[in-house]
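Lecture notes, part 5. Sequence design as translation. It can be helpful to think of inverse folding as translation between two languages: the language of shapes and the language of residues. The source text, in C-alpha cells, appears below.
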C-alpha cells in the first residue's frame, strides 16, 4: 500500500515500459516489508542530469540505469566504484552523503551468478563473446573476474572492436595488477578463422540483440540466430551457450543449442541477480528474496507470452 511515507527506487532509461524490473523489485520489496515503490522512469539523454538531481532531492533510495545511459552516466556520478571504472558502465546508483550519486555495476555479478551455480571449473576455458556493446563490457569484466583462460570478442565494426579492447587493456595497465587476467583478443565476424575459434570454445555468450522479440509483429527478428545456423554445428560436446536475451524464452539460438545437446543459459537469471545485487546495496539487507524476484519475473514473462 503506497502511503505518505513510501520512498522511491526506480529505473532510468529509454525505453523502459517493457522492463521486468518493476515487477520483480516490487515483489521483493513487499516480501521484505520495505515501504518503498520501484518505478520505471523514462528519461531522454538531454534530461539525464536534471532528472538525477531532482530524484536525489526527492530522497530517492536508489536507481538502476539502462539503455542508453549506462556509459554516459559515468561522467555524472560523484564517485565511481572500481568495478564501474573497469567496466566503463554503471547500472546502479546509490545516494552519497552530499547530494550526489555513487555509480557501480551489478551486471557483472548478475552475469557470473548462473555460471558459478554450475559446478564447473571455468579457469581453463576458452570463451567467445559475440558483440562488443554495453553489456559485453560487463560480460568481459565478469569473465576476467572468473580468470577465464582465453576471451575472444567478436565484433562487426573494426573501430568499435578496437576501442572495446583498448578500454580493457588500459584498465589492466591502470590497475597495475600482478594478477593478470587471461588473454583478451578480438576478431571480426567476417574473418575466416572465426568458425575454428568457435569450435574450440567452451563458453559462447551472445551479447547482441539478435533473436530478441520486437514489438513489430510483422518482422521475424526473434527467429534469427547469431552468425547464422551453420556456425553452430560440431561444437565441443560440453560447450555452454549463454544468451543475454530472454525474450522469447528460449531464443531461437538456445532452441538450436538445446536440440544439439549443448548446455544452455538464458539472460533471465542475469537480470534477476543484478537486480538482487542492486537491492542489497540500496537496502543494506543481507537476505534478498531472490526466489520471489525470480517467480515474479517468470510469471510476468509467461503473461506477456512472447513468441
Ligand atoms: P548495445 O550496447 O547496443 O550492443 C549491442 C552489440 O551487438 C553491439 O556490438 C552491436 O554491434 C551488436 N549487434 C547489434 N545487432 C547486430 C547484428 N544484427 N549483427 C551483429 N552484431 C550486432 O546493446 P547491449 O546493451 O549490449 O544489449 C544487448 C542485448 O543484451 C539486448 O538484447 C539486451 O536486452 C540484452 N541484455 C540483457 C541483460 C540481462 O540482464 N539479461 C543485460 C543487458 C543487456 P554494433 O556496435 O556494430 O552496432
Amino acid at each position: 500500500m503506497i502511503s505518505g511515507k513510501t520512498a522511491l527506487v526506480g529505473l532510468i532509461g529509454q525505453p523502459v515500459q517493457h522492463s521486468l524490473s518493476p515487477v520483480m523489485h516490487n515483489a521483493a520489496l513487499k516480501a521484505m516489508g520495505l515501504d518503498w515503490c520501484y518505478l520505471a522512469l523514462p528519461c531522454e539523454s538531454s534530461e539525464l542530469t536534471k532528472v538525477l538531481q531532482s530524484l536525489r532531492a526527492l530522497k530517492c533510495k536508489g536507481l538502476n540505469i539502462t539503455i542508453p545511459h549506462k556509459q554516459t552516466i559515468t561522467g555524472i556520478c560523484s564517485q565511481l566504484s572500481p568495478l564501474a571504472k573497469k567496466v566503463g558502465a554503471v547500472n546502479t546508483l546509490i545516494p552519497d552523503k552530499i547530494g550526489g550519486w555513487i555509480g557501480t555495476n551489478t551486471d557483472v555479478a548478475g552475469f557470473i551468478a548462473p555460471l558459478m551455480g554450475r559446478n564447473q571449473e571455468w579457469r581453463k576455458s576458452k570463451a567467445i563473446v559475440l558483440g562488443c556493446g554495453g553489456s559485453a563490457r560487463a560480460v568481459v569484466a565478469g569473465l576476467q573476474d572468473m580468470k577465464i583462460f582465453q576471451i575472444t570478442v567478436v565484433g562487426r565494426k573494426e573501430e568499435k572492436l578496437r576501442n572495446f579492447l583498448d578500454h580493457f587493456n588500459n584498465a589492466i595497465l591502470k590497475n597495475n595488477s600482478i594478477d593478470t587476467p587471461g588473454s583478451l583478443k578480438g576478431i571480426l565476424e567476417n574473418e575466416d578463422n572465426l568458425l575454428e575459434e568457435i569450435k574450440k570454445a567452451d563458453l559462447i555468450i551472445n551479447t547482441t540483440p539478435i533473436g530478441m522479440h520486437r514489438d513489430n509483429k510483422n518482422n521475424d527478428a526473434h527467429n534469427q540466430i547469431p552468425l547464422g545456423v551453420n556456425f553452430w554445428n560440431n561444437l565441443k560436446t560440453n560447450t555452454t551457450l549463454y544468451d543475454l536475451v530472454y525474450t522469447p524464452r528460449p531464443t531461437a539460438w538456445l532452441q538450436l543449442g538445446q536440440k544439439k545437446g549443448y548446455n544452455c543459459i538464458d539472460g533471465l537469471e542475469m537480470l534477476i541477480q543484478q537486480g538482487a545485487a542492486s537491492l542489497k546495496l540500496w537496502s543494506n539487507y543481507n537476505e534478498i528474496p531472490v526466489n520471489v524476484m525470480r517467480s515474479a519475473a517468470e510469471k510476468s514473462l509467461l503473461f506477456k507470452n512472447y513468441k
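The translated text above is only one of many valid answers, since several sequences can fold into similar shapes. The CA atoms of residues 34 and 218 lie 42 Å apart.
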